[in-house]
Automatic annotation (TrEMBL):
Protein name: Spore coat protein A
Annotated coiled-coil segments of the chain: none
Ranges where the Plastocyanin-like domain occurs: 44-176, 385-509
InterPro entries: Cu-oxidase-like_N (IPR011707), Cu-oxidase_C (IPR011706), Cu-oxidase_fam (IPR045087), Cupredoxin (IPR008972)
UniProt record similarity statement: Belongs to the multicopper oxidase family.
Top-level taxonomic group: Bacteria
Keywords carried by this UniProt record: Capsid protein, Virion
Pfam families from the UniProt entry: Cu-oxidase_2 (PF07731), Cu-oxidase_3 (PF07732)
Length: 511
């Protein structure tokens, strides 16, 4: 479809208001429904799913330490918008097609409120998954200021539910952040970047089959999905009018499979001030930012002295990343446009501080446990590729059971030819390094023999993370402390097509 660029203004999701609030707790309700929304001027309105009647959903803004309760309400129709593959674990035809469970991505929460993939529920909570335990989730929000996001996490159909629109921002603020004199209020803007494809009638396109259709199946999961248009906050190639001043942008890759390597066509810097899980020690000036699915990066862009300029944010990440097809510079090579055309409403007194918060390095020697975990693949009965963690299916017995308060180092040993953005629930971690190794030797003898020196994390990864890119034929090392909750959680690849089939494993934090 040949859609014009930069003809629709960037929408900024509204902030959701609580139903009740007192000194002790805040209570919200967020209802999921199906509705039509205009995603581009020249497209008929598109049927999407969202929260509170909008896609993406409204933004939660909470204080660090605020006790928040959310009732996620499924009021969706019984027929799914998109094609379901009933051969996938957890999505067989004997359970309802439309079911949801919401995960607050990046949050450290009690396991009953984490959005376990089998804790799903249907409209009106009429049917519930085997791990469903409560209708109202509790978020204690003791993390420091950070950009989180909420999205569907239902076993076997996460890729479909999120693509249909079930996602939104959840921002935690704290006193320290407030003292840093960063751009705030209307100069602090969250941006969820996604790719989609459309039919001529404006409806969402999602493939029913792989490129070479799978014999014997009407609908088959695809290895990855790459749309041919880019949306920001639910608009295709939008523009944003800005003043000649500093702005804070919270960048989120909300795509199923697509990576982004973002640049500003003006050649100017992004000043990164935060990673997935909060502020970094010091800002870092970057000409490009790589975002895997689910990764966040908070940046300041300075439009001072650029009156009248139009600045396009571009993307040149191949798909699949990093060695796939180069992007089409006329379509997915462009993300959005900033227009420096608004008059200065007040003098810009905000700053890019030289120091923000301490982020002490976790020394490797503090780890009481080291785990070697391989990322593998096999073929299923239809000849399709199945991505796995440690060659284990979703329902194999739990093999990772860290103790509460224990620090661990995980070696993510990628034996596949693909890159995998690996996400752990409950905890944040630090990236130690990556290192190439002899893949065949490891496959045949289980011996880890490195073939090159350790590669330190890139500057934009120096901070607290919850998602890390595990590159093909490399060992990626991360370090984290488990807690403060015990219970059942998951870790998985955040390429949603991989997660659904079947690159996800439970882990249990034990007392």
């Amino acid at each position: 479809m040949n859609l014009s660029k930069f003809v629709d203004e960037l929408p900024i999701p509204p902030v959701i208001r609580p139903r009740r609030k007192d000194r002790y707790h805040t209570y919200y309700e967020a209802t999921m429904t199906e509705f039509k929304q205009s995603l581009h001027r020249d497209l008929p309105a598109t049927t999407v799913w969202g929260f509170e009647g909008i896609y993406p959903g409204p933004t939660f803004e909470v204080e660090s330490g605020e006790k928040v309760f959310v009732k996620w309400i499924n009021n969706l129709p019984e027929k799914h918008l998109l094609p379901i593959d009933h051969t996938i674990h957890g999505a067989h035809s004997d359970i309802p097609d439309v079911r949801t469970v919401i995960h607050l991505h990046g949050a450290s929460v009690e396991s009953e409120s984490d959005g376990y993939p089998e804790a799903w529920f249907t409209k009106g909570f009429r049917q519930k998954g085997p791990y469903f335990s409560k209708e109202i989730y509790r978020y204690d929000n003791f993390m420091p200021a950070c950009t989180l996001w909420y999205h569907d996490h239902t076993l076997g159909i996460t890729r479909l539910n999120l693509y249909a629109g079930l996602a939104g921002f959840y921002l935690i603020r704290d006193q320290r952040e407030g003292e840093l004199n960063l751009p705030s209020g209307r100069f602090d803007i969250p941006l969820i970047i996604q790719d989609k494809s459309f039919h001529q009638d404006g409806s969402l396109f999602y493939p029913k089959q792989q490129e070479k259709p799978v014999a014997g199946l009407e609908t088959s999961v695809v290895p990855e999905f790459f749309g041919d248009t880019i949306l920001v906050n639910g608009k295709v190639w939008p523009y944003l009018e800005v003043e000649p001043r500093k702005y804070r942008f919270r960048l989120l890759n909300g795509s199923n499979s697509r990576f982004y390597r973002l640049r500003l066509k003006s050649g100017q810097l992004f000043y990164q001030i935060a990673t997935d899980s909060g502020l970094t020690e010091s800002p870092v000036g970057l000409h490009e930012i790589i975002l895997a699915p689910a990764e966040r990066s908070e940046v300041i862009i300075d439009f001072t002295n650029l009156q009248g300029k139009r600045i396009v944010m571009t993307n040149d990440a191949p798909s699949p990343f990093p060695d796939g097809e180069p992007v089409d510079p006329e379509t997915v090579g462009q993300v959005m446009e900033f227009r420096v055309v608004q008059p200065l409403s007040s003098i810009d007194t905000t700053s890019i501080p030289s120091f923000m918060v301490p982020v002490p390095k976790r020394p490797v020697q503090t780890a009481s446990k080291v785990r070697f975990l391989s990322l593998t693949r096999k073929k299923d009965q239809y000849g399709r590729e199945v991505m796995l963690i440690d060659d284990k299916d979703w329902d194999a017995p739990i093999s990772e059971n860290p103790k509460l308060g224990q620090t661990e180092v995980w070696y993510l040993i990628n034996l596949t030819n693909e890159v995998h953005p690996m996400h752990l629930h409950l905890v944040d971690f630090q990236v130690i390094d990556r290192r190439p190794f002899d893949v065949e030797k490891y496959k045949q003898k289980g011996i880890l023999e490195y073939t090159g020196p350790a590669i330190p994390p890139i500057p934009q990864e120096n901070g607290r993370k919850d998602t890390v890119i595990a590159y093909a034929h490399q060992v990626t090392r991360i370090i984290m402390k488990f807690g403060p909750y015990t219970g059942l959680y998951v870790w998985h690849c955040h390429i949603l097509e991989h997660e659904d089939y079947v690159m996800m494993r439970p882990f249990m934090v034990i007392p």
